[in-house]
Amino acid sequence: MPLKLSSRKWMINAKRTWKLMLTNRKSIRVEWGDCDPAGIVYYPRYFAYFDNCTAALFEAAGLPKQEMLKAHGIVGIPIVDTRARFLTPSRFGDDVIIESTIAEWRNSSFDVRHKLFKGDVLAVECFETRVWAVRSETDARKIEGRAVPQEVIARFTHTGKD
Amino acid sequence: MPLKLSSRKWMINAKRTWKLMLTNRKSIRVEWGDCDPAGIVYYPRYFAYFDNCTAALFEAAGLPKQEMLKAHGIVGIPIVDTRARFLTPSRFGDDVIIESTIAEWRNSSFDVRHKLFKGDVLAVECFETRVWAVRSETDARKIEGRAVPQEVIARFTHTGKD
Amino acid sequence: MPLKLSSRKWMINAKRTWKLMLTNRKSIRVEWGDCDPAGIVYYPRYFAYFDNCTAALFEAAGLPKQEMLKAHGIVGIPIVDTRARFLTPSRFGDDVIIESTIAEWRNSSFDVRHKLFKGDVLAVECFETRVWAVRSETDARKIEGRAVPQEVIARFTHTGKD
Amino acid sequence: MPLKLSSRKWMINAKRTWKLMLTNRKSIRVEWGDCDPAGIVYYPRYFAYFDNCTAALFEAAGLPKQEMLKAHGIVGIPIVDTRARFLTPSRFGDDVIIESTIAEWRNSSFDVRHKLFKGDVLAVECFETRVWAVRSETDARKIEGRAVPQEVIARFTHTGKD
Q: What are the residue ranges of helices labelled H in chain A?
């Protein structure tokens, strides 16, 4: 059973029907070590899945994380808020599909939405707010938001003509 | 610098001032391996901290997880919903304090609230909904909610006299 | 850049040139959360990679873990000894290839050897001894070794004719 | 049951009986999320325990990791070789004790030995070789060994008078 690790497609954004938003699909094998004594995924592991999927979404947009950090002088895109609803458990050996898309861009932050499917069933939904972050020039231990470059945002959006 | 691993105290519940709700405080050392290349805690690790703190809260109430599962025939108290806000990052070597309490009991589910402090600063807030869960009798791979026993709830609440 | 998740091939076993031993190759993307503040893979994560690769090797032999446990009534194939040498570090964004093979079968235990490559460079070598393990009939908390079934061993070996 | 997180003591080194080697003892609670579907510790987690214990050993010697990195300009003390033997499994809720000591100092590398006890029973033994590592001046992505400062070594050894 060959698995495609990742695939990209353009989805119609519900709010602004004349824009196409990049959505990435990533297949993840649930591993033995991802599961707890109840035999189901230990939920902090889902957040690692989602973090990997956000990285994969940026890579699908032509921004692999290691190059993006260097090119834009950022320290990362840290999370400031996340929420997940766990609808049905998964077990080791399951191959789940996660669909990820940017739900909204703001000045220095943005929202990512993940939907994890077991077959056709929506098993976990996750919503994250992340910041385009640089090291503070006045205190290297501090991290500050910066405006997300328009060229970055443009990579996730395809504006069609009517 | 001696560290107390865990301590319990009774806090006045804001909504119902005549009830005292058990709150547990747990100190956690942020380890090197909890941190990412930005040098700050990799956020899925916070959820592992919080899961450990929920276990510690139940233990403070006299219900260590391994005994609780056996005594009540449950498979665990899996998460169905969680949200966390990350206000300020932590780094390896930091000792953080997490205060955990049950925010609400419902029939077969309950809410836990965690506040993670770096010194006096609230650094992360987390809210979880969990289920008192048993294996389904008709399908061992399924997990179902059951009413939380009153004797369990009673361990977290102390009703005072006016 | 399409990635093949896993591929199988038959390699000539050095010691017994008339036997072909199944070797599985698995590609793993090093993720941001696999790395520590030095920016390199946090080494306990390598052991999770190797554990996943042992599972993938068994699956390549027609024994996906979840089915294997059920079919053979085992609780798992726990590690009793492992050694790893880390020759060169890897970083997030690297795609590494891990080659895994059974180095030796004994009565109730067996050795697995993993070689992790970054491009053509051998970056990590790992050696594990695992046990074919069942729950003890006299004490459910104990785990005991059992003879590995010949039909299992046969799936990893292809004896050629001279 | 109050737990002391960490304690230090001086042990007589077997090879050179006139030297006392610093040994650190650390108590670790095995958490639910450290365990796998077999209900026992997922073995990569033991390596995270041991990594934390090496950090605790250095801290007991007066070298907390974050300060040590800064004071000595090192990027870390990465592992180049490790071996562990798993003699008896542990489960969530267990409190294990890990004794850690430096087994040998060489020029730019050193060996750490860990013994993990469940009560009086030796449950896991681990041996690590680590390097006193700096970023290469010619290639920031490379990591190189440097001679361990004598003042660092001195903190772990107490030479007695006959």
A: 43-60, 65-72, 150-154
List pLDDT tens digits, range A38-69: 999 999 999 999 999 999 999 999 999 999 99
Of A34, A36, A51, A120, the active-site residue reads A36
Strands B19-29 and D121-131 turn out to be: unpaired
Q: Give B138 to chain C, closest Cα distance, Å.
A: 18
Per-residue model confidence as pLDDT tens digits over D49-108: 999 999 999 999 999 999 999 999 999 999 999 999 999 999 999 999 999 999 999 999
Chain C contact present for D83, CB below 8 A: yes
Q: Using the structure block, give the residue that is written with the tokens 């060169």.
A: C88
- Measure the CA–CA gap between C97 and C92, rounded to whole angstroms: 14
Q: Among residues C38, C121, C108, which one has the least CA distance to residue C78?
A: C108
Digit-coded pLDDT (tens) for D21-38: 899 999 999 999 999 999
Nearest Cα to D76, choosing from B93, C146, A74? B93
Position C82, amino acid: T
Tell me, yes or no, if A33 comes closer than 8 A to chain C by beta carbon.
Answer: yes
| Distance of residue C124 Cα from the nearest chain D Cα, in angstroms | 9
Report in angstroms the alpha-carbon separations of B12 from B9, B19, B24, B103, D27: 10, 6, 13, 12, 33
Mark yes or no for CB contact D92/B66 under 8 Å: yes
Helices D43-60 + C43-60 axis angle, to 10: 170
Contacts of B48 in chain A (CB under 8 A): 42, 44
User: Per the CB < 8 Å rule, is C44 touching D38?
Assistant: no
- Considering only CB atoms, which chain A residues are within 8 Å of B37? 76
Residues across chain C: 162
Q: φ and ψ at D161, to 5 degrees?
A: -95, 145
A5 touches C: beta carbon within 8 Å:
yes
Site from C31, C41, C42, C70 to mutate, B interface, most B CB atoms within 10 angstroms = C42
Answer left, alpha or beta for residue D62, where phi above 0 means left and psi between -120 and 50 means alpha: left
Question: Which of C75, C80, C86 minimises the CB distance to D38?
Answer: C75
Ranges of chain B whose pLDDT falls below 70: 1-19, 159-162
Q: pTM (2 decimals)?
A: 0.89
**Closest Cα partner for C116 from C35, C27, C33?**
C27
Shortest CA gap B105–chain A (Å): 18
Helix spans in C16-149 (H)? 43-60, 65-72
Contact A32 D32 (CB under 8 A): no
Residue C32 DSSP symbol: G
Strands A157-159 and A95-105, sheet pairing: unpaired
How does A20-50 read in b/e, with b if 16+ C-beta sit within 10 Å? Answer: bbbbbbbebbbbbbbbbbbbbbbbbbbbbbb
Contact: D64, B93; criterion CB under 8 Å: yes
In this structure, the number of other CB atoms found within 10 A of the CB of residue D152 comes to 20
